[in-house]
Amino acid sequence: MNASKIIIDTDPAIGIPGTDADDPIAIMLALRDPRLELMAITTVFGNCPPLLGARCASRILQVAGRSDIPVAAGMATPMGGTLPALLQQAYAGPRGRKGSIALPEADASHCGLHASELIIDLVRKHPGEITLVCIGAQSNLALALVKAPDIAPLIKQVVMMAGALGLDATWGRGNITPVAECNIWFDPQAADIVFRSGIPLSMVSLDVTNAAAGLVLTREHLQDIAENTPLTALFKQVCATYFDAPMFDWSEGCVLYDPLAVAVAADATVGTFEEMAIGIETAGRLTLGQTVPLRDAPPNVRVCTGIDGRKVVSDIVSTITG
Fold first, then answer.
1. How many other CB atoms sit within 10 Å of the CB of residue 82?
2. Parallel, antiparallel, or unpaired for β 216-217 and 130-134?
3. Fewer CB in 10 Å around end: N or C, the chain?
4. Dihedrals φ, ψ of 320, to 5°?
């Protein structure tokens, strides 16, 4: 069986205190899973600015011996043009500069194309074959769809880590506001474009990416892993940075939000899914960025409603380090 071609659109940070580890882990999983062919990495604002994210992504590819995979830096702000104040503040601190892990220089870290242009080029070159794995704000894909509406029917599917539907009463709520998950809240206008695009969409949300579902990487997962390859050593270093300065305090470990989206791109049977109609709130003063189930509308998203999180974590770790 041929490997599935994917583009990962992400906001990876490595070695930077206060950033999440799940984006680089998602990239590592895509590189190591034989069911996937990683065609490109595009970066967007989020954990860190997109050019810094491109440097982090390029470092992962270098360590993995895959510098042949192109990296493109993309949107540094939402489509509305104003970076959220909390990110402006974060970027003025440690999240705006290189951390403890050596990175390539900026000019050597990307292919020169804007992320949206690389997406357009690859989708046109491989019609019906490309899966976009969107694990950050969806600004790059939305801009690509605005620039080139013809690519929408050429995209095989989008698998995203996004949203919060309240299916889980405790965990299925927003992590930026009570109703909004950060990847949607950072750029609701972009998410609205993607959700209305007609592209087949699969969504893993906070309802399944949480501690109650068992989707947590802990120190215990790593204690018996030998650093027998450069990628395994980097994996452990990225995890150690997170454990020492966690971004969230939801659990005693790192929730593997984004790697679950990559796992779904490789094999949708890792979870159970339900067809739903979902809209994005783009104007609400109190509900901006909410993913809203719609009545009397045709389904536009396959929503993951259940996983065996402990098995998923074990499989991700063994795939990266095995």
1. 8
2. unpaired
3. N
4. -70, -40
Task: Tell me the two tokens of residue 286.
Answer: 């109190």
At residue 210's C-alpha, the angle toward residues 204 and 213, to 5°, is: 90
Residue 255: per-residue pLDDT: 94
Q: CA separation (Å) from 30 to 24, 39, 117?
A: 10, 10, 22
| Residue 130 in tokens | 């490309």
What's residue 224's pLDDT?
86
Please tell me the distance from the alpha carbon of residue 264 to that of residue 225, in angstroms, as a whole number.
25
Question: Positive or negative, the Cα torsion across 44, 45, 51, 54?
Answer: negative
Query: Residue 176: its pLDDT value, please?
Result: 94
The Cα 315–Cα 322 span in angstroms is: 10
- Which residues in the chain land under pLDDT 70? 247-251
DSSP 242-299: HHHS-S--SSSSEE-HHHHHHHHHH-GGGEEEEEE-EEE--S-TTTTTBEEE-SSS--
Query: Could you report the per-residue pLDDT of 165-183, keeping only the tens digit for each?
Result: 999 888 899 999 999 999 9
pLDDT at 244: 82
Mean model confidence pLDDT for the chain? 95
Other beta carbons within 10 angstroms of residue 274's beta carbon come to: 12
The β-bridge relationship of strands 130-134 and 4-10 is parallel
Domains annotated on the chain, with CATH: 4-321 (3.90.245.10)
